[in-house]
Structure formats: C-alpha cells, structure tokens
Amino acid sequence: MKNFTTVLKIAPAFLLASSMIHAQTKDSITKEKKIEEVVLIGYGKQKKTDLTGSITALSSADFNKGAVTTAEGLINGRSSGLVITQSGTPGNEATIRIRGGSSLNASNDPLLVVDGLPLDGVSLSTINPNDIESFSILKDAASTAIYGSRGSNGVILVTTKKGSKKLRVSLNSFMTVNTLAKKIDVYSGDQFREIITQYAPDKAFMLGNSNTDWQKEIFRTSVTSDINASVSGSLFGKVPTRFSIDNLDNSGLLMTSRYRRNTANIAISPSFFDDYLKFNITGTYSYTFQNKASEDAIKNALSYDPTQSVYDSSSPYGGYTEWTTPATGRPVGVSNPVSMLMNRHDVQNFKRFFGNINMDYKLHFFPDVRLIVNAGIDSKELDGHVVVNKNSRSGYFGVNNVFDYYGEDSYSDESILNKNANLQLNYTKTFGKFNVEALAGYEYQNYHKVSSTSGNTLLYTLDPANNFYNPDSKPDVNLQAFFGRLNFGFDNKYLLTVNYRRDGSSRFSKNNRWGDFGGVAAAWRISQENFLKESTTLSDLKLRVSVGKTGQQDIGIYRYDYFKTYNVSSTLYYQFGNQFYEIAKANGYNENLKWEESVKYNLGLDFGFLNNRIKGTLDFYLADTKDLLSIVPEGPLENLRIIGPKNIGSLQSKGIDLGLDVKAVKKENFNLSFNYNLSYNNVEIKQLEVNGIDKGGVGLGGFVQTFREGYSPYAFWVYQQVYDSNGKPIENAYVDRNGDGEITSADKYNYKKPQADVTMGLITNITIGKNWDFSMGWRASLGNYVYDQISADRSHVNHINNTVDNTINNAPVDFSFTNFSTANKMSDYYVKNGSFLKLDNLTLGYTLNNFIGKNASLRIYGAAQNVLIITKYKNIDPEVFNNGLDNSIYPRARMFTLGINANF
C-alpha cells in the first residue's frame, strides 16, 4: 500500500515531466488560431476567458469512452471536486457529490439543469447519454448563488445536442458481456462441514452432501445491448432540428434482474426577424422497465448452508430447499436465495417527460437588451407491482396467528409534476475598454406529488385492519425567486461578477420564508498584462477570488412542518352535555424551522503554458454552513413528537481542487494527451445542539457511527480492539481509554471516517494517424474507510450455529482468523481501509473515413470497463453506498464491449 500511495502522489509530477519531454521548444511553437470557448453558466453563457467562478466545462471530446449507459458515466473521474458513486443495480441512480456537499442530513445532491430546466433530483438515469452535448459543473458560491436555495451543493448544467444546417444521420450501437468480477470469500461445502464438526457437532446431522456456491447460483453472465439513432438537419430547409431514439436492454448480474430504457429526444431551434427572435424547444420522453431482483438474496447467499442443494423435490416451498421447524413444519432461518429471486417479481414501469421552451428576443428598438423566457415541465409516472408465489417460503407467513401459503399481490403508484418558468432581461454593452452585462429575472417553480400503496390484496378479507389502499397526497412545494447578476470587465484584464437572489420557499413560515443569497467574484487576467502578454512560455494566467452565500430548504418528506395540524379520532368522543365531540390530537410541528445557509470562499488560479499545451486550474475553498437542517430526536414533549426536522448546528468543509490538461505529443500522425485531476476535501462538524447523535445502526441497538463536534459526518465511533502477540483480536477485549477500570460506552472513540481525503482521476487519450484511437481511465480514492458489516454480522459461532432458530449458517472466511464466538460489532477491527486504485475503462477504436461517401465515417471499437481494482479491502468493492457501511452491495459488472459509431 505504501508503494501504491507513493505512485499516486507522484502522478502530477509524472504528467508534467512527460509533457515537458515531448513539448516543442520555444522557437518551434506555432501559434494556433484561438477560438473563444463559450461556457454555460447560471442563466446564460460566458466566454471561458471571462469566467470569475470555479466552473469545469466538459464537451463531448472530454467524455469517457466505451459502453456508457448512463449520463453520469460520461464524466465520472473527469473533474476535480466531483465524486460519482455508480450503482451496480441496473437503472439505479448514482450518488453525486460536488466538493463533498454542504449539509448534514438534508439533501447533498447537486442541482441538475437540462437545457435551462431544473429537474427533480439528480435524475440522470433516464437521459440518453448520446443526446448530451456538454456539461458545466458549477462549484463555488459565486457561480451557484444565482440558483439560491437549490445551488447549495453545486450545480450541473447539461446541454443536449441541437440541429444543424446539413443533414446528418448517426447510428451508435454496442453489445456488452457483463461478468462477475469478484465474490465474497465464504466457506465451501467441504470447509463448512469441518467447521460444523468442530464448533457444532450436535448439528452435524443437518449437513447435506452438496458443495453449493450460492453466489454462483444467483449471479450470471449477462448481456447489455444499446441501439441509438439520430437525424439532424434543417426542417423545411430553415429550422435546425434533431431527433433521436434509443433502446437500452440490461439484464444485470443478479438473476431475474432486468432494466430496459427507451428514449426519444427532439430539439427544434427556429429563428425569426433576422435572428432577433430565437426559440429553442427541447423535449425528452423515456420509458423504463425494471424488474427489481431481491437484493436480500445477495446477503442470504453468504449465509445459506453450502452443503445443501438448491432444489429438494420433497420441499413444499415450490421445490426449493428451505429450513423448517420439525415440530410445526414452519420455515425458519435464512431463506434459499435462489427461491427468493425466482418466486418474487417486483416490476416497476416509469414514464417520464421533460421539456423546455426557451425564447430569446433581442429588442428591435433596443438591441442591447434581450428578453429571455423559459417555461418547462418535468412529469413522472411510476407504477409498481409485486407478486410473490404462494407456494414459496416468501409466500408462507402468519395472519392473525394462522400460518398458511398466502403469497403476495401488491401495488404502488406515484405521480410527480414539476413546473418551472422564469423571465429574464439581459443587457450587454461595451463602452470603450469597459464591458457590462446585467441580468434581472423572476422564477417560479411548483412541485406536486401524489403517491399511493396497497397492502397485500390477497389478505384484504383475512386482515382488513392492516391491508388497505394508502393514498399520500401532500401539499405542493412552491419556490419563487427574484435574481440578478452584474458582470464588469475592463481592458480584457480585470473582471468582476456580482449576483443576488431572493428566494422564497413554502416549506417555511412567513417569518422565515424568504432568504437572501448572493456572491461576489473578481478575476485578474495576469497574462494580459504587458509584462506577460508576449510570453511564449506562459500563455494564460488568471487569478480568481470569490465569496458567496447559498441556501438549503430540502428536508425530505417534511413539506409544511410549521403548520399546526390535528388528527381527529373516528372512534373516541368526549361528552359535553348531551353532545358528543370527536377527540382530536395535535400533530408535531416546528414553526421556527428556517433556511440552512452556507457561506463559501474560493481562491483560484487558471494557468496555461506553451500555447496552452499544458493548462490547468488550482482552487482552494472553504465553506461554513450554519443552521443545519436535520431530522433528529426531540426532547420530552418538544414539538409534540419523538423525531422531526430542526436546525441543529454548523459544519465546515474545506479543500483543494487541481485539474490538468496536457497535450504531451501533438504531431500529424500521433497525439498523446492526459487529463489529471486531484481533490482534497475535509468536512468537520463544528457545533451541534446535542453533541453525539448515534448513527450507523448495525442491529440490536448498536451504532458504529456518530454526528459529533470536531469530527466528520458519519465518523466511525467504536471500541479500540486489543490484540494478542500474534496480531489476532482478543474477543470482547477493548482498551479502557478513559482509565476508569471498566469498559463502557465512554470508552468508544473516533476511528477513521467513510469520506476520502483525496480523490483522483487520470485519463489518457492516444490517436495514431487518422484511424486508431485509444483511451484509458483511472480513478483513485485515498483515506476512505469502510465498516465491514458482512463479517461483523456473520463471522462468529453464534451466527454459524444459530440456537435461536436451530439452524446452521455459512460465514465469511474471516472467522478462521478471529474465531469469535459472539458478535463484536462495536470493534474497530471491522473498520477497514477502503482506499483504492481503479482502472475504470480501456477503449480501442478504428475509424474508416469516407467509407461510403465523402462525409461518412464508421468507427468500430472494443472496450472493457471495471477492468482492475487495487485495494486492501477484501470484500467485493470499497465503493459502497450507505455512508461507508458494507452489508453487501449489488456488484458492479466487469464489462467487455464491441460497438460501432456510424455517421453519414
């Protein structure tokens, strides 16, 4: 691990050295014609040279190659400060964090804006990645404050592809073979027989004669296919138009899982009156089908007896082997994982449409002023249906203490409508050496959600009290805002940006409803000064500084928590004279709930050398968040409830972002380039209303994480394990850290945290001649730790020999090292180093130019993804969800791809 860390530390130096070796000399540098790159910013665009905030712009040339099935897969590892944790479950959303987020328990998701329309959540899984033209990642408050309450955790702006003047047809297709890269190391059937003979000889009669690898039984090699076609051109010869369709089919590694996505996208860009009036009309429709295989089967595959066969012809549970109680015949213990998958079908159908109409009118009588209007909707319709075979273990249960084969048939549905509209006036003018841009606007957003669930409809007549159709219709959430921005530039050297937003949220009472947010940023283009302007070595140098304030109001299901509401009983009455009145109970509320606010500081440097053959950015940032929104236990009789949302404290986030782009070799027949990024981030809780909130529940009332002043959120809070002279943990032996002569909860301490100290990405691109291309993408994470709940729950005798239900269970091989007789879940022994180096993808392509015509090209490529991982962590993958608790995850597939890109 020491050598691995050293290699990562010297990577930036290696890149610089490599680029310098291959760079042309000062005399041979040929000045290229500079094209002003335009970057998408909040409510507008700006030349990249004029940016004052911390923004990473990624175009299609920067995207990850290979079999990319989700939009976030295009940019994973491509930007400093951006961490994307992708799920192995087909169709599930990734977790995206920009600079670690800025909240404790409220949402830490960045705002996603597609073609000017803010979407609900980070909903990238339903967007076809082939439709995306570019991303802009807004990181500092000076860039995001104009989005006010929605920009606290950063903003991701997505631009989709538009039409063109010439007719262009594209066909992209690939097929991927998905394989299981790794399994959890548990005992084989033969090994398990030896363990039972030693530790539970009285249960030896229960052993079977098989050697079943339950993980092999539930996982499979599967296939993913994707076909995308698009047509771009001018409708009626005048209106740029683009239309695309896509079909994705992913079977997934886990047996019975499946995800299908069909999308259609249209973009129309008419203009009138000599381009004084322009429209951009975009719309995306997607339909996704997901068969959600029971992921609890993955956990059960680690525990089910490997000496048993999958099938038993005498079993009443659909012919699958199951543990039963001899006296009653009722099922007990861990369920057969294959049966869990084959006898349960959880189907979800998800329909989504989002679209936006943008009108940009340059006033005829005052052409320096533009009127911009955006209006859009984001509509979602979800319906689910769960069916469980009655003749299965999952379908056998008790109702009113009567056990029988019932099965399950239940339904759920959800409807979400997110409406958004904004009106802007934009003024742009140049006065000699002064450039001025002013923006003023108003925005309206309304979020409507209705959902309902049914109980098990098969039990309606047997157990009507616990089975009913449960509609859930909460009041709409409404956001309104007034915003503005001023950009000043002087002599193409000195830049200043001031923005302001006044945000109103219906989540808060009238006294706290409105929040004021804004930012100031300044930049100095040092390279434009006379003493550097003619330099052939230093081609770009810009110093940036910014400060701003953003807000947060999203606290999950609590929409109108300041309302005083009552529940009226339909069965209890109070008699007053001859009149009976229904008894009402007050519900909990918090009328003092207010905005969570973050003040963020950023100091940045943009630089370029050798005509920008080497260019990069370096940022130092600090963010202080106060009035943290969190859902916490409340005091006796406080707010008339046990838990609820409160403003509870403050936290601080600080870090460094570094990004480098190096064109190491640039010749006619050979090009070699690198993109390297590094981020350091540290989040610390500064103040809490109640210091020491238990988090990370691991069963039996135990918690292994904490919210505590002076530590990172979800820091591990455990006992310090004592080891013998051979380095073996001594059971139930912990360090008496406070020296009081006994081991109590006062001896728990902070040992590591789930968040990485440092994350890195390295992309290598090579082109040879006009035909061959090669790309390779690496990612690294240092300082992140994982709680190995897989072993903590299972690697002890009491799990192997379960006396509660009189069964025997398999265990991870870690048991052979510890020989624990009971669970020692609070031990720091189970907090493992999760640092890793991953080779995410390798892609090799060959392009046939002019293969059936002058403008036609065909690219054939092969790719591999999730190729290699170097880590000390012994389980499937150290990249886990759930804040660092690993209780088994849906494994990310190792994929081998063959694809084509054809353009006509």
Structure commentary:
The protein has 904 residues and is mainly beta. It has a domain at 163-361. Helices cover 8% and strands 49% of the residues. The protein has 10 helices and 50 strands. The protein has a 22-stranded antiparallel beta barrel. Strands 3-8-9-6-7 form a 5-stranded mixed beta sheet. Strands 35-36-37-40 form a 4-stranded antiparallel beta sheet, with no helix packed on it. A hairpin with a 2-residue loop joins strand 1 and strand 2 (44-47). The model is unreliable at 1-35 (pLDDT under 50).
Low-confidence stretches: 1-35
Radius of gyration: 30 Å
- Mean pLDDT, as a whole number? 89
Measured between the Cα atoms of the first and last residue, the distance is 50 Å
Summed up, the helix count is 10
Helix- and strand-based class?
mainly beta
Give the overall silhouette. globular
* Main sheet characteristics: 22 strands, antiparallel, barrel
Number-wise, the strands total 50
Strand content: over 45%
Question: What percent of the residues sit in helical stretches (DSSP H or I)?
Answer: under 10%
Which keywords apply here?
globular, mainly beta, signal, Beta-barrel_TonB, cell outer membrane, membrane, 904 residues, tonb box, five-stranded mixed sheet, 10 helices
